[in-house]
Please model this.
Amino acid sequence: MSKIIDELLYSESHEWVKVDGNIAIIGVSDFAQEEMGDITYVDVPAEGDSVSRDEDFGALESVKASSELYSPVSGEVVAVNEELEDKPELINEDPYGAWIIKVEMSDKSELDTLLNAAAYAEIAK
Amino acid sequence: MDNQVKTTCLHGEHLALGAKMSPFAGFDMPIQYSSITEEHNAVRHKVGMFDVSHMGEIFVSGPQAEEFVNHIFTNDIRPLEPGQVLYGMMLYPDGGTVDDLLVYKEYAPDAYLLVVNAANIDKDFEWISKNAAGYDVKLLNDSDNWGQLAVQGPESEAVVAKVLGMDLSGLAFYHFVDSELKGKRAIVSRTGYTGEDGFEIYACPEAIVELWKTFLAEGVAPCGLGCRDTLRFEAGLPLYGDELSADISPVMAGFSMFCKLDKDEFIGKEAVAGQKADGVARKIVGIEIADKAIPRAGYPVELEDGTVVGVVTTGYHSISLDKSICFALVDAAYAPLGTALSIRIRHKVFPGIVVKKRFYQTNYKK
Model:
């Protein structure tokens, strides 16, 4: 059984969102990292790039496969977790600590359509 | 599960170990047990074992067995001594590859064992049977009655010798000995698909299951098809379907050394000779990119101006070399070593260069 954090919101494509005012902090769920296996590379956008809801903004690579990352919200990338460049395995070790990007949201109402922990638990199995 | 998906004799063992399973070549096979990286490193540095029971075993015997095998096989089996193994291909008349395979020259006279890829067993047997018309040979596709374990890595000789109670120090690379397990014939050959020293053990399914458990108890790491691919890729070995196929000839793949044009004849010989003389339109090359992004099969290979000149066939961030490298099928004009070629990975283009395909220095015991 994979770990799910109560306070976070989730997308059906297994990203999590932590809301901090107007900023969405985005990572991938424990379920996603387990499915991927050892993550060897994280392909991320640059600060200042714009992202759109449900469009891919990067990818996780394991030895065997790559898996695209889809943005749960629209807006501008204001920070990228640079630690992941040298330590992509942090996503395996601590998926809810290893955030990937922070997005300044252009439409906070998009959050309303994301899943809460209980709803996400239904699809993460 | 789909009724069409077959299982090997070790299927229950894979499930018991909690392997991640996936269909491969029509079989439900283990992709990994722990992690691809750990399993890969076990083979490179210690010893690991693979269930390769899905591979096909086709026996050819009879007065014209040598002549017939040499007719369908690109390499020349005439110089082989009993107990020797030879790698090569079967080709279509146009030079396209039916399969790549190992030929074992049996200790019994006029007898050969052909070990073929799992995905191709039926196609190969049909091809072999069709081309046997007029030859005095007996053909037997005995794949279902054989299991196979590949025990690979620098510590493989010690553990295989111990478990089988055999002295293997005198068994040279690409040679085999006959044995008996569970009252049935077994074959131990010093061959593999990893770039390391290693053994492939062929035996009846009951014996293979028992050997698997014994090797596990001896500390041999169970390894899935995930690292089988990363290992063979680093060693520059082709996978049928990726680097060899009906559309990719051995000449295109850079394996024409396994096609002996000094033989009187073999199916596809004229095509191989023509391709060697006139050149081929496309070739398989190695490409290294200076980034951790991973070139995957199907990604386009481009020139600086964006012109697409090829496609990736297999690619990884190499575990043993810590580099992003791939095999790609490219226009022959861009195949020379040192040529600048880029790979498009999702939205970005990563510059790279053509490098030797044997990325990893192999450690065979010659």
In short: Chain B touches chain A through 20 residues (CB under 8 Å). The radius of gyration of chain B is 21 Å.
